[in-house]
Amino acid sequence: GAGVSQSPRYKVAKRGQDVALRCDPISGHVSLFWYQQALGQGPEFLTYFQNEAQLDKSGLPSDRFFAERPEGSVSTLKIQRTQQEDSAVYLCASSLRRFPDTDTQYFGPGTRLTVL
Amino acid sequence: AQKVTQAQTEISVVEKEDVTLDCVYETRDTTYYLFWYKQPPSGELVFLIRRNSFDEQNEISGRYSWNFQKSTSSFNFTITASQVVDSAVYFCALRGTTSGTYKYIFGTGTRLKVLA
User: Fold this and answer.
1) Chain A interface, mutation test: which of B44, B50, B89, most A Cβ atoms within 10 Å?
2) What is residue B2's DSSP assignment?
3) Cα separations (Å) of A91 from A24, A61, A82, B22, B88?
4) Residue among A10, A20, A17, A7 nearest A84 (CA)
5) What is the pLDDT of residues A58-109, one digit of tens each?
6) Is some CB atom of chain A closer than 8 A to the CB atom of B47?
7) Strand, coil or helix: what is B68?
8) Contact, A51 vs A73, CB < 8 A?
9) Which of A42, A58, A107 is facing B108, going by the closest CB pair?
10) pLDDT attached to residue B99
């Protein structure tokens, strides 16, 4: 079956531009996570959704970062006024059940964001 | 605070050698979950195993085995008779169960190179 998909796979933005990154989780998955992975580092938690509810946004690095999942399926991570330090791979993951009973997280291929 | 340490940044082995990847974690939660993920060159993280804090039984899956020791806060991963296809970055991760916490904490990863 279809896995988690993310688009675009690559995004180049000029400093100060706004970007929107999309995640299509596996159909029926309740939980959705966003992570930021800098080069040579492990994924760092950004935010968590249970259906359409954003239950944890403690990992968002600044108020320039905003995420939504309005219908409980597709999610969008928006970064306003991008800065060079935002350059990273943004990973989306989904799992079938709600936290804390979440089981296997299935990760998407990520969106590599480069801010010039 | 929760923390995962993977002290080995990069390991190189020759095919058919056994290799152990170390993971040390810190948490104050009495109930927690530990994970290993594989990130091949394609970039998509692949789930390998999940263990909860009450189950210290070692697990074997084919050429993979995991050693969980609460006394030393370690969750090490061994690949027996390594193969070139095992070349990837391996991440250890921790999830606590403190109320309000949805974070998965990842280590910085160990890059494994298996040489033919």
Assistant:
1) B44
2) -
3) 11, 15, 17, 24, 17
4) A17
5) 999 999 999 999 999 999 999 999 999 999 999 999 998 876 665 788 999 9
6) yes
7) strand
8) no
9) A42
10) 67
